[in-house]
Design brief:
With 446 residues, this protein is an alpha/beta fold. It is built from 16 helices and ten strands. The longest helix is centred in the first third of the chain and has 18 residues. The N and C termini lie far apart (55 Å).
Length: 446
């Protein structure tokens, strides 16, 4: 219900989807994510950073008119995963078992209680998705009608499904409840799913590289913590897990976590951020031999929608769903897909975004790198592909790509100064996807 006529008052909607627990669905306008910590610190949380625009959105050139939009969005802010929570709780138990706290920085630990949940969206994460839906309606309303509602899909994790439903709720509210898109397809993560990295069992992970970086940056921090908490016997891995609480507790409570004092005192910003960069680069990004191939299926779906042709893919796609106009229509003006950070990294890498001059060094960050995870896949991060017609170019359509509102250069398809490639050039540039990963997909099962 609308609580006030004033634009600054928050909007609140009751959950309308009984298939998702009530606490997953918090429909309200997101305020500026100050969260009690500086934006600089928030942006150092890598994949745990809240969404911030990486640049100011640039409308297309005046002679161009957008006629189709594709959105790929990560779920909103969440609690730690079950694995991360286990590691965090073990580190806290060690810290609380200390004989004493000789460092005032750790005095709060004596009365500290860990209360976070597992896996699910937090209220702030729900509001991020709602705000994203509102923004999309406001930006692309000219594409919307009762005959042309957004077509929405989500991977089947609760937090992804809830994010999609919050997005549709925000979109609906922004339209004055005139247009009411729904979540039409949920892709099971137990089967073929282009919105989750679940189909490459032979792929490696980033543990070798993140372990090298941990051994590089963490020992002085661990020594400081152990000196201030005699008997805790923390390891470098424990230190990392304690540092992560600055992000997790802050987004969960929307108040500054006490561990942010530790985070800032140890000057962890650069080290923690780079750990996330390495994790994604060597997890499903360019540094993982079988990383980009996990994004091929989605790109082939994107090409099908852009060209209004049936999907041609023999990798992660669900052929039953993708062959039906009910579950994979080719005539919509706006598509919104909801996914995970690891899968989005794979998709970006398969497409050719954020290429680096050299592979990331696990012991020394390159200050010139553009691979910065907080600008690529923060909580509620999104890629937008806009298709448009431009006067003076015949009937040839153009496309451009934005990631968190930052216009991508698309050198691989000869983009002009406005970031525009011809649709034909963009399709041709995606040879890796169109070849089903050039043999890499088969390696996933060797």
């Amino acid at each position: 219900m609308i609580c006030s006529a004033f634009a600054t008052i928050l909007f609140v909607w009751y959950a309308y989807a009984t298939s998702v627990p009530r606490d997953h669905l918090v429909f309200r306008e997101a305020s500026s994510p100050t969260l009690g910590v500086s934006q600089e610190v928030q942006l150092s949380w890598a994949m745990y950073s809240p969404y911030f625009p990486a640049d100011v959105y640039r409308p297309p050139p005046p002679q161009c008119k957008i006629n189709q939009v594709h959105i790929l969005q990560r779920h909103g802010a969440r609690y730690p995963t079950s694995g991360a929570a286990t590691r965090i709780e073990a580190a806290i138990a060690k810290l609380k078992a200390a004989d004493s706290y000789t460092d005032p920085l750790l005095a709060f630990v004596e009365n500290y209680t860990y209360i976070l949940g597992l896996d699910d969206l937090v209220p702030f994460g729900a509001s991020q998705s709602s705000s994203a839906g509102r923004e999309v309606f406001q930006r692309y309303r000219s594409l919307i009608s009762n005959e042309q509602l957004p077509f929405v899909r989500a991977s089947s994790s609760d937090r992804v499904v809830a994010s999609a439903k919050n997005w549709t709720a925000g979109f609906t509210a922004a339209s004055g409840f005139r247009f009411k898109p729904v979540l039409s397809v949920i892709l099971s993560e137990a089967g073929n799913d282009t919105l989750d990295d679940n189909m490459c069992p032979s792929a490696g992970d980033s543990s070798p590289q993140t372990s090298q970086w941990l051994a590089t940056f963490a020992p002085p921090m661990t020594a400081r913590l152990n000196a201030g908490a005699p008997g805790a016997n923390l390891t470098d891995a424990d230190t990392y897990n304690l540092l992560s609480l600055c992000a997790f507790e802050t987004v969960a409570t929307e108040k500054r976590s006490a561990f942010c004092d530790v985070y800032e005192e140890l000057k962890a910003e650069g080290a923690f951020s780079y750990n996330g960069d390495l994790d994604k680069y060597y997890g499903t990004g360019y540094g993982q031999p079988l990383g980009p191939v996990q994004g091929v299926g989605y790109i082939n779906e994107l090409l099908a929608r852009l060209t209004s042709k049936p999907v041609s893919d023999h990798t992660q796609t669900n052929t039953t769903l993708d062959s039906s106009p009910d579950t994979f229509p080719l005539n919509r003006t706006l598509y919104a897909d909801f996914s995970h950070d690891n899968q989005m990294v794979a998709i970006f890498s398969a497409m050719g975004l954020f290429q680096q001059r050299e592979p990331l060094d696990p012991t020394k960050p390159d200050p010139q790198r553009t691979w910065r995870v907080q600008r690529i896949v923060p909580f509620s991060g999104r890629m937008v592909v806009e298709r448009m017609e431009c006067q003076g170019t015949g009937n040839e359509q153009r496309v451009r790509v934005l990631v968190n509102d930052a216009l991508q250069p698309l050198k691989f398809c000869g983009a002009d100064v406005d970031g525009l490639c011809t649709l034909d050039a963009f399709v041709k540039s995606q040879a890796y996807a169109r070849s089903d990963g050039a043999g890499d997909f088969e390696k996933c099962f060797e």
